[in-house]
Amino acid sequence: MQEKYLYEYAVIRIVPIAEREEFLNVGVILFCKKEKYINVHYQIDEHKLRLFSGEIDIEQIRLNLQSFEKIALGTINCGPIALLDVASRFRWLTAVRSSVIQTSKTHPGLTNNIEQTAKNLFEELVL
């Protein structure tokens, strides 16, 4: 019998105009404490984002999402947050914020294949 791992995930959302509270799911952050795993999967659909707002800065969103990914992976030259332990990085990435890039509440689950679960969540919630 394969071991099951407890994981948590959050959906990454772009909120082009905060006052309207409309958002587009663009990614998923998945974290597993036992495996010391954290990863970010994202995809920007420029056409859909421009439907929300023609003035949105896609390049800045791309840079910010790249920073999310670098922090998750613990990239050395990405600042002090990226140097924190895996759980702290996940908590920082999923903290409530009122910016263009936000995350959903975190949700738990059990899996025996973390990578496949990340892929499945991304396909189900973003694509």
Considering the chains and any ligands shown, give keywords for the structure:
127 residues; alpha+beta; five-stranded antiparallel β-sheet
Tell me what the structure shows.
With 127 residues, this protein is α+β, with helices and mostly antiparallel strands. It has helices at 46-52, 58-73, 86-93, 114-125, and strands at 5-14, 24-32, 37-42, 101-103, 107-111. It has one domain. It contains four helices and five strands; from the N terminus they run βββαααββα. The termini are far apart.
Helix content: 25-40%
pLDDT under 50 segments (min length 5)? none
Number of helical elements: 4
Number of domains: 1
| Rg (CA only) | 15 Å
Any idea what the shape is? globular
Largest sheet: 5 strands, antiparallel
Say what oligomer this is.
single chain
Mean pLDDT: 95
N-to-C span: 32 Å
How do the SSEs run, as a string of H and E? EEEHHHEEH
Strand-pairing-aware structural class: alpha+beta
β-strand amount: 25-35%
What is the structure about, briefly put?
The chain is an alpha+beta fold and 127 residues long. It has helices at residues 46-52, 58-73, 86-93, 114-125; strands at residues 5-14, 24-32, 37-42, 101-103, 107-111.
Draw up the topology in text.
Layout: E1 5-14, E2 24-32, E3 37-42, H1 46-52, H2 58-73, H3 86-93, E4 101-103, E5 107-111, H4 114-125
Antiparallel strand pairs: 1-2, 1-4, 1-5, 2-3
